[in-house]
TrEMBL record:
Keywords: Cell membrane, Membrane, Transmembrane, Transmembrane helix. It is found in: Cell membrane. The keyword Cell membrane applies. Belongs to the ABC-4 integral membrane protein family. It comes from Paractinoplanes rhizophilus. It is a multi-pass membrane protein. The keyword Membrane applies. This is ABC transporter permease. PANTHER family: ABC TRANSPORTER PERMEASE YTRF, MEMBRANE COMPONENT OF TRANSPORTER-RELATED.
Length: 608
């Protein structure tokens, strides 16, 4: 019974479609959060790996005794992996519970800042529970696999040793492989930094560099500890902390690696964000000749009325007023945004970087393409191009020129206002650019425009400085959210330092007791453990700082196609991050240092 073009659906269908729409809109945020979760799991896996490595080393004599009385390698492997399984199950359960608590807390926080959430209860699906336990157990088992395999390699004769086995050196094959990976990664990063839009080189270079650093980290630990610990080596406790940090390069490297990941990401994001802010300023300075740029005051508004441009033209102080409009069209089977400009005035308010042809030649059948698109499609000035508009169908347009700067326009396809008006019913401007007459200052024309447009409160009037500041604030807001997520990974890494130091203190109980017996005070014991923690954190901070700066510069150049035209590498912020991470080692050492200072001298000395 309904007219053509209408359909009847059930309420359940509407609910399902609305749910899918919300899920689709939040898809990008979901991917971002899952990315941060993956980083945290990667950092956590290094901690698990390091913990089981230390535990296996401490139980070397125990495993050797089991082998001596008949236990097979499979049984040793099964015992370690079973322990990892239990740890993974318990951790997954705790993580699931904490996740629900955090979700409830976030809901309350969003409500406090005015973002009301639906009144329904928190949704806990069976797949979420299964995913939590699957990920928790899988990550723990994978991280513990190598230490478990090492436990099976302990010979039964090791049960007869009274002293701990000497620290193993670094295999030559590992050094060679790590050197090759590092060299290849540095070459990839250098290529990404030296040329624009080398996304593949930046990605592969980052992975290869990180893999190389990971393999060579035990080799670099002792030189780094020697250099970083030089200022504190004159004191007894500082020198002892320096020696302890360098005693087991593998352990120190694996502990520091977790911090390297988190800090490298923080620094890299800082570099990219700084480059975005610098690029916005450079783009406005280079591409915009306008004194004012008017846009809709709300991101949800479709545009601003065409009458705004007419009111501005009526101002005697306004020299040039040029509108820009946007619409969607299908070009070569792909839907893409198409910008519309006034060919008679746009050159006086904007610089598109025309490479061939002329903007003034835009007419009812002309189209301007970016140089990259024209090259990719094999088009040149005079070539025909079919564009399909939703309201008027197919139109055969002629390429009248190419341009190189899409940052101000925001799309590689540009038509004239006549073409736009003939094929779109919408008459809203996406932006209006205003250039004042000679002798009229920016502040003056802005004041006059504000007065003239008092009846249009939804129009935002900005000069170049306002736009730069708005973009900076937007980037800083996004950066703040990213920092919060990445700092969670740094906190997890610092927990790894705590864990390693606690196990190290347990391992050196007799040593600590002997030191106390020969006169070392509790304060000195605490100080030695703290210096050891600071040096471990400093190694991770230095490596993370260097890698983060390189990764950030490479990806800033690789994202040139998205408008990052300037690579800005800040020094102060990354250095502060590295110093804070190193100083956080002091906090990480509080509990292990107190435990070390409380070692019972007599029991420690007679302990076997």
């Amino acid at each position: 019974m309904l007219p053509a073009g209408l359909e009847a659906v059930t309420g359940a269908t509407v609910v399902g479609e609305a749910s899918k729409s919300v899920q689709s809109a939040l898809g990008m945020f979901t991917k971002i959060f899952l990315g941060f979760a993956a980083v945290s799991l990667l950092v956590g896996s290094f901690i698990i790996w390091n913990t089981f490595s230390v535990l296996v080393a401490q139980r070397g004599r125990e495993h050797a005794l089991l082998r001596a009385i008949g236990a097979g390698r499979r049984q040793i492997l099964a015992s370690v992996l079973t322990e990892a399984l239990v740890v993974g199950l318990v951790a997954a359960a705790l993580g699931l519970g904490l996740g629900l608590a955090v979700a409830a807390g976030l809901r309350g926080l969003l409500g406090a800042v005015g973002m009301e959430m639906p009144s329904t209860a928190l949704q806990l699906h069976p797949r979420t529970v299964l995913a939590a336990f699957a990920v928790g157990v899988l990550v723990t088992l994978v991280a513990a696999l190598v230490p478990a395999w090492r436990a099976t390699r302990i010979a039964p004769i090791a049960a007869l040793r009274e002293a701990a086995a000497p620290v193993k050196g670094i295999a030559r094959a590992r050094v060679v492989a790590g050197g090759l990976l590092l060299a290849g990664g540095v070459a990839g990063l250098a290529r990404a930094i030296s040329a624009d839009s080398q996304t593949a080189a930046a990605g592969l270079g980052t992975l290869a560099t990180f893999a190389g650093v990971l393999m060579l980290a035990p080799v670099a630990v002792r030189p780094l500890v020697r250099v970083l610990g030089a200022p504190i080596s004159r004191s007894v406790t500082g020198g002892m902390g320096r020696l302890n940090a360098a005693r087991s390069p593998r352990r120190t490297a694996s502990t520091a690696t977790a911090l390297v990941i988190g800090l490298a990401l923080v620094v890299a994001v800082t570099v990219v964000a700084s480059s975005i802010k610098a690029s916005v300023g450079d783009v406005l300075d280079r591409a915009s000749k306008a004194d004012l740029i008017l846009k809709a005051g709300s991101q949800f508004a479709a545009g601003i009325p065409a009458g705004v441009a007419d009111k501005l033209r009526a101002l005697p102080e306004a020299g040039t007023v040029s509108e820009m409009r946007w619409g969607m069209a299908r070009i070569d089977g792909t839907t893409a945004p198409v910008a519309a400009i006034d060919p008679a005035t746009v050159d006086r308010v904007a610089d598109l970087g025309v490479a061939s042809g002329s903007v003034g030649a835009l007419g009812a059948d002309g189209i301007l393409l970016s140089a990259d698109i024209a090259k990719a499609k094999g088009l040149r000035v005079g070539s025909p191009l079919t564009v399909t508009f939703a309201q008027t169908g197919d139109h055969r347009l002629r390429v009248i020129g190419t341009f190189t700067d899409t940052t101000l326009i925001g799309t590689p396809y540009v038509v004239g206002l006549d073409t736009y008006n003939a094929n779109f019913s919408d008459r809203l401007d996406i932006a209006v650019l205003v250039a004042a007459k000679d002798g009229v200052g920016t502040a003056r024309i802005k004041q006059l425009a504000t007065t003239a447009l008092a009846e249009y409160p939804n129009v935002a009037i900005s000069d170049a400085g306002d736009l730069k500041e708005t973009q900076r604030k937007s980037v800083d807001q996004l950066l703040g959210m990213v920092y919060v997520m990445l700092l969670l990974a740094v906190v997890i890494a610092l927990l790894g330092v705590v864990n390693t130091l606690a196990l190290s203190v347990l391992e050196r109980t007799r040593e600590l007791g002997l030191l106390r017996a020969v006169g070392m005070t509790r304060r000195q014991v605490r100080s030695a453990v703290r210096w050891e923690a600071v040096l471990i954190a400093a190694v991770g901070a230095v490596l993370g700082l260097v890698l983060g700066l390189a990764f950030g510069a490479a990806f800033s150049r690789a994202l040139a196609s998205l408008g990052i035209v300037t690579v800005d590498v800040p020094i102060a912020q990354p250095v502060v991050c590295a110093l804070v991470a190193a100083l956080a080692g002091v906090v990480a050492a509080i509990a292990p240092a107190r435990r070390a200072a409380k070692v019972d001298i007599l029991r420690a000395v007679v302990a076997e």
